[in-house]
Each structure stands twice: as structure tokens, then as C-alpha cells.
Here is the input.
Amino acid sequence: MEKQYDIIIIGSGLSGLICAYILSKAGYKVAVLEKNKQVGGCLQTFVRDRCIFDVGVHYIGGLGEGQALNQYFKYLGIRDTLKLQRMDMEAFDTIGFGEDDTVYKMAQGHERFVDSLAQQFPKEHLAIKNYCKAIQDICQKFPLYFLDIHSSYPSDLSHLAINAKDKIASFSSNPTLQAVLGGNNILYAGRDSATPFHLHAMVLNSYIESAWRCIDGGSQIARLLVKQIRKEGGVIFKQKEVDQFIFDGNIIKSVLLDTGETLNCKQVISSAHPSQLSRFVRQDRGHLRKAYLNRINNTQATPAVFSAHYTLKPNTVPYINRNYYHHKTKEVWNAIENNSKDWPSTYLALTPITSKSPTHADSFAAMCYMDYKEVQRWENTFNTVSQETSRGASYEAFKEEKASILLEEVYKQFPQLKGNVTNTHASTPLSFRDYIGCPTGSFYGFERNYQDPMRTALAVQTRIPNLRLTGQNINMHGILGVTVSAVLACIGLVERKKLLTDIVSAT
Here is the structure.
């Protein structure tokens, strides 16, 4: 392990890996430090009973020809080698409520999306059309989401202060249509008192453009990026956790690992959760303002999640090429608050796709909100490189009980699963805390709030001249969001116009 690098990148999530590729390609000597045994952050997968399960990437939007993420991935050199399955054109997402058997469909392509929903709500065609135009219009306020390299970010920030629930309600007074349009809001932890319309719009618009599943899991994205980074001369070290930064004046001169090793560097990019800055930069040294660190540490986080992965008997359950979102009521914007009294108030269910069988699923996955307080009694146990502490039988019993409750709910909509589930593997907020690095297992990082949009607007460049930030908390969560955050982190270290031109012209 060499001791001198131009740039050290902390964390091997998608944003960290993209930064490593861009900067290695630009000629920098780059090292990525990952604390866990596996790279990828939310791109990670795990294998149980010979089945591959995704940690966080259940489907991806905007990978069609001419769409932004497709172009970014072409530049990264991974688009053509990804193994993908395009989801159902007529219904990539489906929404259901309570005991009602009606399932509402979201179709791919803006015209098809409008026409399909209008068939389900015949009196609401104009409302749906106006809604669809509105989400496209507000997305245009963010140039890099469409790789518009000539437009600058608008100086008027009023678009950040629009409430998602209220804006959707402005198009139609039909409560069911309102609930359907917000029905997949577990994708961004939607909440009536906080979620801005632009967040809803950018997430949903990406999937309306095109929706895809990764065959055999999303970890292939990380693996392909690692190959590209190494091809450009970058290096990646696993099981290397940063303890703190060593300074020369106000400049970081090296990073100290928890093993006692020291690596010298000229620049640092951290894709770790921003709360880690309190550890990396000791508060008593004044390199970062206490007010800045306190703002980070006290910012509202999005809720944690509980995931259950059920392995299935071979060739018993057909693969379903769409997602299903279920809500116990049509109060979809209150699902987080309702979760504590009626768990699970909402869930996402799907069948991962594998190369083993194009027609049948070998597993079934379900995800729902879970309050971190439910697992707080085990918070002093860890499952990381540095600490392998067993959480004990009580924790395993807790997971089993929760997975059984969730499965009973899922059975109501997927009775074909009954008698065909062979095993259960569950993940709690502690799992996400340990492997993704969010303090309370928060799945989407900081909560964005239309009432105070600048509170979570952390700049890429910190007060420390050679420290930059990237990741879902710096820009936005999701594959496209963190890709854009990585590009923003690299601008300044590479020339902006050249980088963006290279991305747009990649083939």
C-alpha cells in the first residue's frame, strides 16, 4: 500500500466510485478507502440460499437511449456491459390500497403514462396531463439532470419551496388519483409536512422515462466501475476505515486509518455520511465551524427501513416484471407517522430478476418503514470490519417476528407465495447503519423540506480548502442524484466544460 496520493476518496458508494473514475481518467493518482469487505454502498448485494438480494437498488430509471443516466453511464464505460431487464411498459409500478382489489398502473413514457392513468380515471385526463407536464417542467430547473451543459442553475429558488402533496392536489380534487400519484413515495420517504414537489418530480420522472431492473442485482454497477477505475490507474482498498484527518495548518495533509496507517494526500473527497465529519475533523481544532457540524448532526433524517427477503421453491412463482406498492389507507403522505400504530402502514414488494430463470422468481422481496427506536436496544452491537459483535437470539427472534408479520400482509396481495416460501432473511435499520454508514439506518439520508430547503443544502466545497463532499446528502438520493453529486464534486479538480462535453459526447 503506497503512502502518497493526489486524491483520497472516502467510501466506495456510487458517488465515490464515479469520482474515482473521473479523477483517475484525468490523470490524478487516486485511492478509494472502503471500511467494509464489499464495495458499492447501496449498490451492494448479498447471497443467501443461492439467491442474490439487493440492498438498495431495486430498479433504475432514465437508462433509455437519449436519457441522462444512460449518457452518464456511457461516459463511465459501463452502459453496454450492464445486464438489464426493461420493466413492464404498461405498468412499471402498481399501487394498491387497503382491502380493495383494484390495482392502479403507472406506465413508461410520458404519453403512455397519461393515457394509461386516464383510462383508470376517465374524468381526469386533463388533470393527469397537466400533472405530467408540471413534473417535467420543474425537472428542467436542474440542468445536470438532463445534461443541459449550457444552462446555469436558476437564481430564483422558489421551485424548491413547493409542497409535493399540495401541488399534486392542485391538479385534481379526486382523492384516489392524488393517492395514486403519491403512491410510490416510499422511494423518497414522502411526508406531507416536508416533501418538496421537485423531489417527487425528479424521482418519478426518471422512472416514467424508462424503468429497468438489474439482472442478478445492482452490485454489477460497482464491479464494472471498479474495473474502469483500475484501468485508469486508480486503486481501491477494502477494510480500510478512516479515523481522522491530519492537518498542516488548515490543509489536510494525510488521513489516519483505524489501523494506525497514515496516507498522505493533496485532496480528500468524502462520500461518507456528513455526520462522520465530526469524527474526521475534531471539533476542538476549529477547522470546521461548530455551527456547521451541529447543523449536520441535528438535521432530520429520513426514516429507516426493514427489508425481508424470502427464498422460494424453484419454478413455483412466476417472475413479476413490475413493482407493487401497498398502503393500508389512501393517506399515503402520512404513512411514516401511521407506521408506529399500524405496522407496516405501507410496503414495496417485488420479485428480483436473475439469469437463472427468465420466467420464474427464485426470491421475493418486501421493504417497509421501521422506526430506529425498535432496534435501539441492540445499537451497541455491530457487524462491521472492526467490530463483529453478535446481536444475539433476541435480535434474531425480533427479525423473524417482523418478517412473518410483513409476509402475512404480502400474502393478501400475492397468495401465490403461500406454501412456496422456503426461508427468510431480514435486514433492520442496524444493518443499513453498519453497511451504508447512516447513523440511524436512514435509507435516503437527510430529509428535504420545502419549508426550509437550504437547511440540507450542503455545499460540495467545505471550509477546508482541500476537502469536498459528495453523495446522496449533498445533492439527492437515487442513482441519478448521486451521479450528479459526483460530477459536481469533481468540477474544479477537472475543467467543467471539458468534463460535461466529454459526458455528452460519449458513445
User: Anything to note?
Assistant: The chain has three domains: 4-46+59-82+216-299+453-505, 110-213, 303-443. The radius of gyration is 22 Å. The chain has a mean pLDDT of 95.
